[in-house]
């Protein structure tokens, strides 16, 4: 008797542990001559020997989140988070409209807290509680809560008498250094000159420059934590290209946008790879749901790469339904969607022909080489790294896993044949920034760096060094 | 002796439930019937696999696993074990499958676009990636232990 395949939503939660995943920390310029590196939240530019050329980080309360080189490599588009300890400091910098809205919301906070405690009881998950209120403005609501606490804590505390864990969590949270955060996307010249493109209290996600450098795509959270609206910014003018997508998008060479979206707006394992054609000159975009390129099964973080041949690289589990209930996670594979003008006899979606078990089950962290011939793959539960030949599916493990180590850094290609990644040196305990080439040769780029600069590039589990 | 009886006796002996006298009689029977020795060897090998599975993957031998329907496992398992052993044998098969992939996928794998993979060019033969299991409490990751370099 066949059993219906039981899709466990907990798969998503297990893989999506915020803050415990590989993230981008270095980005090579298009000509490979220099790299932007985030060290302890500060941004600096280094050469191929790891020597600092210029420090661009503001330091202090500003943390660099992501970097995108402009095609001419003369400047960078940088996403930062700027923190403020008090409302007075934040209000002076926050966009006026959002500041006004936060103050409006703060008057409703006591009622919101009372409702939340009545509905959901006690919890130490403050953010979870706020998310469950299904606010269209979660980031502004969070600021409003802290503002209300700053001005009139008793108006909140009286509703927390039946929720001691929540109260304890709130007290602990407001004692942190910074409570209010501003997302800033700016263009930074290597000379240090800066130009703000957009600022927002609502969360913004990784900005990506269009191939011609004239537009910028980024996400803005407008409600559910899992989704963003995809924004196109051209000369300071914003248009919404798509609503309710995951924070996984990229430009193609023909200037369309590829994004991964939920099926019928519901978060779940089944997702869709969609293509959005954007008229960058349009002041108002006709919103469309996007052409569906593929339906995919993704229990891990969605990710998509555009390859120079016009194809789109994404990951998915492979399954047919109904299927037997299993005690282990099915294999994940990489796939390429070939555009219409490259139809093959078999299918427009081709699997990168790796063997069973040769790729991690948690296939949410990969980076394609500039020429689209190879892809570097890591996972969040080990520090192993592999390079896959896309055409043949040949897999080479270029960094074996180390006991107690988990990768927290996405690899980055310097050029078609050279890749940089983080590797643990077990003897010294130092995390190395390694330059690897397709001949198998390696070189360490951070030999002269202080140990602490790369300490968080690999997480050492408890019991390890 | 019919095959079912032979299987039962071998299983009883492996679990220490055969008396010394009965064990001697079993050995005598096998010595006189070479054709039964081949079957006996296969049964004992399967028992060894099951015991190894219990050692390696004890969590699979939960009550939930052992109470599963066994219609499909009967098709997979080449020998007809007694009822009380079927569950362990089925789980043994599942544990082996879990290590190398899964049944449903191999049965329904699409054709045409797949090419045979080339071996991993790594210093170890085992997968470097974490393996995940679905449990009642969620997903558990099993981190591989790297093989020490010679």
Figure out the total of helices of chain B.
7
The residue ranges of chain B in which pLDDT falls below 50 over 5 or more consecutive positions are: 60-124
Instruction: Kindly report the greatest chain-chain contact and the residue count on each side.
Output: A-B, 48 and 45 residues
Strand content of chain A: 35-45%
Order of strands side by side in the largest beta sheet of chain B?
A: 1-2
Largest sheet of chain B: 2 strands, antiparallel
* Average pLDDT of chain A: 87
What kind of sheet is the major sheet of chain A?
Answer: 4 strands, antiparallel
Q: Quickly give the structural class of chain A.
A: alpha+beta
SSE series of chain B: HHHHHHHEE
* Strand elements of chain A, count: 30
Helical amount of chain A: 10-25%
Number of separate strands of chain B? 2
Ends distance of chain A: 49 Å
Which descriptors apply to this entry?
heterodimer; A: 465 residues; 4-stranded antiparallel β-sheet; 8 helices; globular; disordered N terminus; B: 150 residues; mainly alpha; two-stranded antiparallel sheet; 7 helices; 7% strand
Describe this entry's structure for a reader:
The complex is a heterodimer of chains A (465) and B (150). With 465 residues, chain A is of the alpha+beta class. Chain A has 8 helices and 30 strands. In chain A, the strands form 8 sheets. Chain A has a 4-stranded antiparallel beta sheet, with no helix packed on it. A 4-stranded antiparallel beta sheet of chain A has the order 5-6-7-8. By secondary structure, chain B is mostly helical. Chain B contains 7 helices and 2 strands, in the order αααααααββ. Chain B has a two-stranded antiparallel sheet with strand order 1-2. In chain B, β1 and β2 form a beta hairpin. Chain B is elongated and about 50 Å long. The chains are: A alpha+beta (465), B mainly alpha (150). At the A-B interface, α1 and β24 of A face α6, α7, β1 and β2 of B.
């Amino acid at each position: 008797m066949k059993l219906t395949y039981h899709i466990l939503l907990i798969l998503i939660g297990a893989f999506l542990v915020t803050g415990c995943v590989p993230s981008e920390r270095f980005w090579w310029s298009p000509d490979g001559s220099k790299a932007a590196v985030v060290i302890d939240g500060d941004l600096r530019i280094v050469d191929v020997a790891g020597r600092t050329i210029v420090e661009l980080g503001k330091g202090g309360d500003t943390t660099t989140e992501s970097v995108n080189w402009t095609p001419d490599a003369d400047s960078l588009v940088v996403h930062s988070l700027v923190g403020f300890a008090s409302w007075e400091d934040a209000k002076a910098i926050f966009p006026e409209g959002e500041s006004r809205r936060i103050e409006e919301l703060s008057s409703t906070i006591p009622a919101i807290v009372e409702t939340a405690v009545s509905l959901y009881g006690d919890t130490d998950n403050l953010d979870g509680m706020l998310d469950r209120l299904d606010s269209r403005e979660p980031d502004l609501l969070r600021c409003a809560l802290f503002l209300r606490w700053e001005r009139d804590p008793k108006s909140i505390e009286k509703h927390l008498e039946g929720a001691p864990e929540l109260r304890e969590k709130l007290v602990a949270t407001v004692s942190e250094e910074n409570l209010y955060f501003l997302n800033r996307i700016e263009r930074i010249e290597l000379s240090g000159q800066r130009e703000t493109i957009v600022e927002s209290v609502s969360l913004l996600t990784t900005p990506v420059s269009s191939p011609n450098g004239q537009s910028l795509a980024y996400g803005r959270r407008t409600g559910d934590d899992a989704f963003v609206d995809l924004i196109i910014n051209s000369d300071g003018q914003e248009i919404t290209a798509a609503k309710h997508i995951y924070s996984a998008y990229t430009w193609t060479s023909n200037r369309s946008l590829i994004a991964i979206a939920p099926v019928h707006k519901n978060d779940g394992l089944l997702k869709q790879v969609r293509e959005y054609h954007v008229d960058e000159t349009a002041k108002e975009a006709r919103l469309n749901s996007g052409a569906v390129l593929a339906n995919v099964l993704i229990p891990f973080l969605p990710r998509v790469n555009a390859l120079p041949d016009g194809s789109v690289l994404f990951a998915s589990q492979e399954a047919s339904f109904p299927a037997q209930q299993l005690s282990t996670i099915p294999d994940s594979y990489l796939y390429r969607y070939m555009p219409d003008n490259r139809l093959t006899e078999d299918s427009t979606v081709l699997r990168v022909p790796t063997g069973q078990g040769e790729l991690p089950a948690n296939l949410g962290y990969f980076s394609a080489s500039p020429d689209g011939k190879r892809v570097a793959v890591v996972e969040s539960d080990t520090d192993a790294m592999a390079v896959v030949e896309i055409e043949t599916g040949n897999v080479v493990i270029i960094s074996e896993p180390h006991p107690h180590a988990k990768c927290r850094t996405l690899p980055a290609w310097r050029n078609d044949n050279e890749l940089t990644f983080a590797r643990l040196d077990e003897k010294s305990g130092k995390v190395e920034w390694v330059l690897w080439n397709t001949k198998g040769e390696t070189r360490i780029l951070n030999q002269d760096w202080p140990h602490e600069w790369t300490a968080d590039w690999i997480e050492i589990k408890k019991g390890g060094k | 002796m019919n095959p079912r009886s032979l299987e039962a006796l071998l299983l009883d002996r492996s679990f220490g439930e055969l008396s010394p006298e009965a064990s001697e009689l079993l050995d005598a029977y096998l010595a006189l019937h070479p054709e039964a020795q081949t079957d006996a060897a296969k049964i004992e090998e399967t028992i060894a696999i099951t015991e190894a599975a219990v050692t390696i993957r004890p969590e699979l031998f939960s009550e939930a696993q052992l109470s599963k329907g066994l219609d499909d496992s009967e098709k997979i398992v080449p020998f007809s074990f007694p009822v009380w052993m079927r569950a362990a044998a089925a789980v043994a098969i599942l544990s082996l499958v879990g290590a190398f992939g899964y049944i449903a996928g191999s049965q329904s794998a699409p054709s045409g676009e797949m090419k045979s993979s080339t071996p991993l060019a790594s210093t170890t033969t085992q997968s470097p990636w974490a393996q995940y299991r679905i449990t009642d409490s969620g997903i558990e990751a099993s981190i591989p232990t790297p093989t020490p370099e010679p």
